[in-house]
Amino acid sequence: MNEQQSPPQASARPGRRGADWMFGGAYGTVLASALLAALGQEGEAFTPFYDASWVLVTAVTAGLAHGYSHHMASHRQESAGYRWRMLVLALWNEWPLIVAALPTVLLLVAAGAFGWNSYEVTAVGLGLNTALLFAWGSLVAVRVGYRLGSALLIGLADATIGLTIIVANALIK
Fold this sequence. Notes:
Layout: H1 23-39, H2 48-73, H3 80-92, H4 95-114, H5 118-143, H6 148-172
Helix pairs in contact: 1-2, 1-4, 1-5, 1-6, 2-3, 2-4, 4-5, 5-6
């Protein structure tokens, strides 16, 4: 490259590189776990469809807020059309956060359809999400170049977040 050329502006686009898109998977799973633990209260009627809608609405809202804040943090003086395209791309890049909340949403919908017990649904959901956190952490670590043993330890560290939510749920309720 000669002195007249400038380097490409890869950082100007809010796109995802490598395993970066997997960040949203872990974030969405933690968000769904926390909501699942917080929504059900002992002594109250179990409202799984209502709870499922709140998990989904919160995940979508968090994705929009996260994408918007990334866009604003990297805001540059460009044309309005370019800024709008970058905003749409930044918002689109948050899809993993929303998708990661879907197992919890689907579990709650199934609980409503089949009349499952609140305590069991919460326990299964938190266990499932903890396993998903382990999978996300391990997958990301392998994807970025860690060996399998190290990747599994990283997955275990991520699963610790889910275990923390389980313990907090037990202590608070």
